[in-house]
Amino acid sequence: MTTVFKPMLLATGLAFAANAGWADQTLRFATWDSNESLEIQKAIAAVFEKAHPGVKVQVEAYGDGYDAKLAAGFGAGDAPDVMYMWDFPAYAPSLLPLDGYLAGENGLDMADFAAGLLPYARITNEDGTASTLGIPAGYTTFVTYYNKDMFDKAGLPYPTEGWTWADLRADAAKLARPDEKVFGYGVDGDPDPYDFETFLWSNGSSWISPDGKTTTGYLNAPASTEVFQQFVDMIKGGEAVLFGVGDNGSYRELFNADKLGMVISGIWPMPDFEAAGKNFGVVGLPSFGGKPAHSNVGISSLSIAKASKNPDLAWEFVKFYSSPEAVAMRTNDIPVLNSVAKSKGMADNPKFAPFIAMLPPADANLSPAFLRNANWGRAQDVVKEAIQRIYIEQDGIQAILDDAAARADKALTK
Predict the structure, then answer these.
(1) Rg of the chain over CA atoms, in angstroms?
(2) Which of 206, 227, 377, 386 has the fewest CB atoms lying closer than 10 Å?
(3) Which of 390, 392, 358 shows the shortest CA–CA distance to 142?
(4) In terms of Cα–Cα distance, which of 341, 276, 326, 281 is closest to 140?
(5) What are the Cα distances from residue 260, in Å, to 69, 254, 407?
(6) Average pLDDT over the chain, rounded to an integer
(7) Going by C-beta distance under 8 Å and a sequence separation of 6 or more, which residues neighbour residue 213?
């Protein structure tokens, strides 16, 4: 994908007029991004600075150590004013609720935001009220990438929307040539439990109960076991490869080498596939029989530190970052604003439309585990270990999940 900044310089003359009281102010903005995505954020900050003379946005790239550095900053009383955020339960005491700003005179109209994103930036307080702690900045859902050349060589029609896991497995079996180390589908050997919950949701299960109190009956539910059993069967049968394990390579390497026919991922590998000149297609997730396919959402939100010395300026930056001008500058994820997605023709683009279609509706009641219990991070370590055991042992799946549920429940209450 090509990044174009020049048209966005027009934004400097638009609705974000300078406030004389903000002159000679420095606003700290922390991000976990790097490379091209980081340059895009610096460009957005530069446009904001030009529209607000005297204001300096100090972009702080924390990289892979983002959470540790951010936590250290909060602990030392030296947190940035604005930061990328995802783990709202963990950081809630240190974040400024934004509901007052949203409803205020300098508020933000949320009607243009993709509605399915908004629950990811809200938490429920102990008194039952809800607080908005972040504003969505960019997102990706999960889709299926398929190698068109491999499908053509095998004489197979391309996958279409509404397909099932039975369809995927049938295609994978015809694409696979295990003796040549060519596989139809890729299974992540070390998946992030957050991402993996996509498969559980699609089979009617989840990691944790809706009230966030237990994993028993969810993590180890029959529907969860079925998901793992399917992947193990695909690996044993030669339909799928366990990528990222041993000398199997990453899914990007395998896909680009025409050794992998299909893989499920977010938007992240698309630039790599395009740079490699791959002839690929994108389709939504397959369903488990008659159950609807669901995707989790990888989302970047902007939050404001409760201890910020200039929260009004921080809000002005967050508001600008959420404007159509700034959102259109982001090219490495899906626009959070419906109007921008429409103006870019993404809803009609066969490579991007599936991402938008997979976004859960706001009332889907599909809340990821970390939003249901602030101690999920501890339980997630247990889940991750269980997944690895399943792929190594490839047997006794129910017993492994039963054990994991018992240990995860203890972790939730520590």
Answers:
(1) 22
(2) 377
(3) 358
(4) 341
(5) 37, 5, 36
(6) 92
(7) 373, 412
For residues 327 and 336, give the distance between their C-alpha atoms in angstroms, rounded to a whole number: 7
Which residue intervals of 17-87 are DSSP H helices? 35-51, 66-75
| Rounded CA separation 390/232 (Å) | 8
CA distance 306 to 311: 8
Closest CA to 262 of 288, 291, 231, 283: 283
Report which of residues 364 and 273 the model is more confident about.
273
The residue whose two tokens read 């025409």 is 258
pLDDT of 369 reads 94
Q: Enter the pTM of the model.
A: 0.91
| Alpha helices (H) in 293-375, listed in sequence order | 311-321, 324-329, 338-343, 353-357, 369-372
Mean pLDDT, residues 269-283: 97
Select from 16, 21, 81, 20 the least CA-distant residue to 48: 16
44's tokens: 């957005």
Q: Tokens representing 314?
A: 């921080």
